[in-house]
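Course exercise 7: structure representation. Students receive a sequence record and must write out the corresponding structure in token form. The form below is the worked example handed out in class, using D-lactate dehydrogenase (326 residues). Read each field label carefully; the graders check that inputs and outputs are placed in the correct fields and that the protein name is recorded exactly as given.

STUDENT ID: A-19
EXERCISE PROTEIN: D-lactate dehydrogenase
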Amino acid sequence: MKVAFFDTKSYDTPAFEKLGKEKNITFKFYETKLNEDTTALAKGCEAVCVFVNDTVNAAVIDRLSALGVKTLALRCAGYNNVDIQYAKDKLRVVSVPAYSPYAVAEHAMALLLTSIRRVHKAYIRTRDHNFSLNGLTGFDLHGKTVGVVGTGKIGCIFINICRGFGMNVIAYDKFPAKDSGIEYVELDELFSRSDIISFHCPLTDETYHMIDENSVDKLKKGVVIINTSRGALIDAEALLEGIKARKIGAACLDVYEEEADVFFQDFSGHIIADDTLARLISMPNVIVTSHQAFLTEEALANIAETTVNNILACHNGEDCPNELHI
Ligand code: NAI
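STUDENT ANSWER:
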């Protein structure tokens, strides 16, 4: 069986090549993303494998289907880039719902600690033999209130990590977990009470721009915002204005609304065209990582194993527990 693998990065290939050999699957690795112009690369393949920034809209689905592709295998949890409804009866769509929720929750905490203890500044300073402490004052997490939006797999692990630090946790979820011992509040209350807010919900029509001009007004002054979920949960312009107005104290971003054309690529020798991203990165209280929260050895191994099992289940006409239905 042949599988067209789009948006390939060097860290993807070892685990997929190894499993492919074992299971008799030939992966055709393409660096390009899947979109309307690149679907032809899937010719002769039974399945395509995509990541977070590939485009799987109605036109792409039609073209893949016409080429005889039967399965769309997402090697990620989020599927906001796929028109699931349109794919019904055309392609079987499978995903990797959990590969290491610990990886993402731990990265969220890594960003928070780096930001509030100014580790990113201290690292650069000491490399230049500058041992001054001026401007490096942080604050204790103990006793602070963290608001967690989305209490699924990742959100719950992040909550436990925060409790380990002695923080007070409040949360908002459209579907609160019963008997979880979590204090659920309305979103506005979470915005007004939280010293730190961390997003762990999917991107949907309802969660699009949860942080916008209006919600920035409701935030506690000096709040630290962490987003390891999906960029478009936050209106980047509103975030920038909130930081410039000193309302938002810091932002830790592993995802960015317009990341598709920038993240995962080396632009170090180029001029970045996105002024908002460039301005955000220039702020001393903003940390940006390039959608790397998932990137641990454990997660990569789990992603490859689940994706291959998903593809094989579809190939064999079996039920797949990770199939997405609308
Ligand atoms: P999950 O499905 O276990 O939990 C999501 C939670 O969000 C659920 O409790 C759900 O009820 C809640 N939710 C749904 N709609 C909501 C709404 N309108 N308002 C508030 N809450 C809502 O998902 P999991 O595994 O915890 O992942 C969360 C998100 O993290 C994913 O959707 C994905 O976008 C992101 N992610 C980011 C990664 C990265 O590398 N940065 C890697 C993996 C996931």
